[in-house]
Specification:
Helix content: 25-40%
Shape: globular
CATH class of the largest domain: Alpha Beta
CATH superfamily of the largest domain: Cobalamin-binding domain
Number of domains: 4
CATH architecture of the largest domain: 3-Layer(aba) Sandwich
Strand content: 5-15%
Length: 705
């Protein structure tokens, strides 16, 4: 991996001499109070502006401010016309556009494509404050407002749409978001390294259309530059057998069944990795051929390691979309610098005292790491942040806790979370940097933990202890998801967690109990969860605490058959779990699971020359049924479950015995449609509670009381 420049080593732009803004300005009046006649950079976001390092626009804005640029924020603009995008005037360098911390379509719609009534990133939690496909809409309105100003798009919504991708909401394969947004550049992943270099090069008067060599970016160009070599992706990995569309002029017999064999993969001629590009099947090809879509997904995921990835190119009509290799992860010194910038850790005063639910959740949390090497196929973290863990120093985390204690109103000594995408990947990495740079595995922990992975939790345990020792800190909770297969390798970590950092419930995500769906998720078997639970229960008892592990499960994931849901429901009943809310699988763009959902193929596994076929529970009725199995205890679901169990030949599970799933009788006033989401709130998976927990008694127990 090349050694990049430290993001804080650039010669600062002239405005560095100015005092950092208390809040990045959202109005001309604020700019005037700061003595600014213009902004150098304006960031447009679909979220409320909260100056906290858990909010992406605050991080990017403060990083650019530290480089000496004057940065303004346009938050949740009204999008029916360009005028709101002129609120701060034209920036001297560029507009940065993002949908916010969440993909706007995930934010606005449930897994059943129903509009949500709320939005955690909006004051008052009210919904409807951002458009569908926010990046595209905001970028187009910005272009209308100031046609000549460069537009750079980023954030998770842009990251996951950088090439042709299946869109669950449109139910089709859309082209790269770059083209629909009419943006000049796209930055994907954690964008600090790329956006800092782009800003300085634009400030040096370099035209935006010549900036084509920065890692972690995508752009549109025509033709292959001189000195570059092009590699056809089908020579790296065979896409299987592709069926062409039938010719209307050819005899009908046999045409639809005729398969065109693809040339076997050949050994590519060695070329300079830094001067070659892998050509994926075009947008038009992946629209027409699902095998080619699965192939493109596979090749893209093989080219995500910053140590060995090559540039990608995909034709869209007469234009090529280029994607440079992923950004080099930030070093610890850089991570410390990013998270110790002068954030106010408060919402902008513009919102007065309005509650912003997402802020209330993370107000007293501290990020200690980025990235995830779990490789779960349904999760977009890997595609966005990468598999290499980026860590902060223990000293930096302790300093942030002290600053939060001293400056944030309402601090009571409770730290709500020390974590990141996962709670316990801090300082975990490949034992050998050379192996890490050459690896192309999608997961470091599936089908088992890689022998080259360091699983030592000692640095994390030490960090927890230092955080608890900060004067004024009473409790440090861990709210990020714990990777239980890794935790089970360190009983000392589980003991530390159970003894000091759980407030009664610990959420864990086994996702399923059956091999079919688990193998498509890249998740370990349920036995690993049970091993962790035994450790957790043991250490909780030793600490004299009554604590529960709360498992998450997901319905209707690719590879899940009705029989799998029956087995999961029986496991839930046997273990005394009642699901309060359930979540059906939602295919987010560019993930392996979304490719499975769209194509019915598993891009990770071949059967001969073809990809493995995957069973997809896709109909609304079947998705509803799978959710009903998760809520087997809800009497409203029993008529549907009785019908399904009878159809599956499992009528033996209908009855009043303790080993049967649902009773024969139906309570009066029940039997309607099964419950889905409550109040339209977004849930990544589903929540369960122990049925025998006195704090959450069953309806029967409540009647006895």
């Amino acid at each position: 991996m090349p050694e990049p420049a430290n993001i804080f080593s650039y010669r600062p732009f002239w405005a560095k001499r100015l005092t950092p803004a208390p809040f990045l300005p959202m109005s001309l009046e604020e700019m005037e109070a700061l003595g600014w006649d213009s902004c150098d950079i304006i960031l447009v976001t679909g979220d409320a502006y909260v100056d906290h390092p858990s909010f992406g626009m605050a991080v990017i804005g403060r990083v650019l401010e530290a480089q000496g640029f004057r940065v303004g924020i346009i938050s949740q603009p009204e999008w029916s016309g360009p005028e709101p995008f002129r609120a701060l005037g034209a920036p001297n360098l560029f507009f940065g556009v993002t949908a916010g911390n969440m993909d706007s379509m995930v934010n606005r719609y449930t897994a059943d494509r129903r509009p949500r009534s709320d939005d955690a990133y909006t004051p008052g939690g009210s919904g409807g404050k951002r458009p569908d496909h926010s990046v595209v809409v905001y970028a187009q309105r910005t272009r209308e407002a100031y046609p000549g100003v460069p537009i750079i798009i980023g954030g998770i919504e842009a990251s996951l749409r950088r090439i042709a991708h299946y869109d669950y909401w449109d139910q089709k394969v859309n082209r790269s978001i770059l083209l629909d947004a009419r943006a000049d550049l796209l930055v994907y992943g954690n964008a600090e390294r790329a956006i800092v270099e782009i800003a300085h090069r634009l400030a040096a008067r370099e035209p935006v259309d010549t900036i084509t060599d920065i890692r972690g970016t995508a752009f549109v160009r025509k033709g292959l530059p001189e000195g570059w070599a092009e590699i056809d992706s089908t020579t790296l990995d065979s896409p299987g057998r592709v069926v062409p569309p039938a010719s209307p002029y050819a005899p009908t017999a046999g045409i639809a069944e005729a398969a065109v064999p693809v040339a076997p993969p050949s050994r590519p001629v060695p070329v300079d990795r830094d001067r070659c590009v892998v050509r994926l099947p075009s947008h038009e090809q992946v629209v027409d051929h699902r095998d080619l879509y699965a192939h493109a997904s596979r090749v893209m995921h093989l080219e995500t390691n910053p140590g060995n990835a090559r540039a990608l190119v995909q034709q869209h009509g007469k234009k090529d979309v280029w994607v440079t290799p992923p950004p080099i992860p930030l070093a610890t010194e850089e991570m410390d610098g990013v998270y110790e910038l002068p954030y106010k850790r408060l919402p902008h005063p513009f919102y007065n005292d309005a509650k912003i639910p997402a802020y209330d959740m993370i107000k007293f949390s501290v990020t200690i790491q980025r990235g995830c090497f779990g490789g779960c196929t349904f999760c977009s973290i890997t595609e966005h942040e990468g598999r290499i863990i980026q860590n902060r120093s223990q000293e930096s985390v302790v300093r942030e806790i002290g600053k939060m204690r001293d400056t944030v109103p309402g601090f009571t000594g409770q730290i709500s979370d020390l974590g990141g995408p996962t709670a316990n990947m801090y300082r975990l990495a490949c034992k050998d940097p050379k192996i890490e740079a050459a690896c192309r595995r999608p997961s470091c922990v599936f089908p088992g933990i890689c022998e080259n992975l360091n699983t030592n939790h000692a640095p994390l345990i030490e960090l927890y202890r230092k955080a608890r020792a900060v004067p004024g800190v009473k409790k440090v909770s861990i709210a990020s998801g714990v990777r239980y297969d890794l935790a089970a390798e360190s009983p000392e970590y589980v003991k530390e967690l159970a003894t000091h950092h759980v407030g009664g419930y610990l959420k864990i995500a086994p996702e399923h109990t059956e091999e079919g769906p688990l193998s498509k998720m890249l998740k370990p078997g349920i036995g690993t969860y049970e091993k962790f639970k035994q450790l957790f229960d043991r250490f909780s008892r030793e600490a004299g605490k009554e604590q529960y592990v709360i498992p998450y499960f997901i319905a209707a994931h690719p590879g899940t058959r009705d029989e799998d849901m029956v087995s999961l429901a029986l496991w839930l009943k046997k273990n005394g779990f009642h699901a309060d809310q359930v979540q059906a699988f939602l295919p987010t763009p560019m993930t392996f699971a979304a490719a499975m959902y769209h194509t019915g193929k598993n891009p990770m596994l071949r059967e001969g020359k073809s990809f493995e076929d995957v069973y997809i529970p896709k109909s609304r009725e079947q998705r509803r049924l799978h959710k009903a199995f998760l809520r087997w205890h809800d009497a409203n679901n029993w008529p549907l479950l009785r019908e399904a169990l009878t159809r599956l030949g499992r009528a033996d599970l209908i009855g009043n015995g303790k080993d049967q799933l649902i009773p024969l009788w139906q309570p009066r006033g029940t039997g309607g449609a099964p419950e889905g989401f409550r109040g339209g709130r977004p849930f990544a998976t589903q929540h369960t509670r122990p049925a025998n927990n006195p704090a959450h008694p069953s309806p029967k127990a409540r009647r006895r009381r």
